[in-house]
Amino acid sequence: MTWRGSSSPTDRIFACLVYLLPLLDVVGLVGAVLFASGSFLAPVLAIVVLPLSPLLGIYYGFGGFMPLIIFFALYMLVVRNDRVPHFIRFNVMQAILIGILLSLFSIIWNYVLSSIFLPTSIVAQTLFNSVFLATLGVSIYCIFQSALGRYAEIPTISEAAYTQVRY
Fold first, then answer.
1. Using one digit for the tens of pLDDT, what is the confidence trace for 89-114?
2. Residue 79 to residues 13, 87, 96, 97, 115, Cα–Cα distance (Å)
3. For residue 49, how far is the Cα from the chain centroid?
4. Structure pTM?
5. Which sign does the torsion angle of CA 60, 133, 121, 114 carry?
């Protein structure tokens, strides 16, 4: 655990809120497939989607450019701003990196794997379930750690976030 200074309650709230972005990304990525296939995770996904539903319309609105706009806004206005506390900048960068990993999975699925496996195949279902569970678990872990004022340490992602966030 790394201490770069104390974190106020408002810092903790903002650090927690940023982890809604990976949840929005994963719902948009695997949500329709898991619901359509009747996955055993569909009830869990429904529990996640219900409170996020107002944000989903905004996030995927504007012709699909809102995630890109949010990415650039967070990176330029928060991560690269030295006046923002390190705790918030680190958590924003970590959430952005999780979103980038989900985008890479989406690209690999759309251009490589979707031509090999049907979305209803057991391999695709296992892959989608694993991506959903991993993202949900990482997001919940990071939200709890941020709420406690601790830096959430995810092995490779945290190291990359530390290299991107200046002191």
1. 999 999 999 999 999 999 999 898 87
2. 16, 10, 10, 12, 37
3. 14
4. 0.90
5. positive
